[in-house]
Amino acid sequence: MKNKLTKGSNLVWEASRMILPEHKELIRKHYEELNDVIKPILSEDKLEELERTVIEAIEFKSVVEITYYKNKRVLKYQGIIIRQLDLRRLEVEVADGLEFLKIDNIIDIEWI
Question: Is the pTM here over 0.90, yes or no?
Answer without folding.
Answer: no
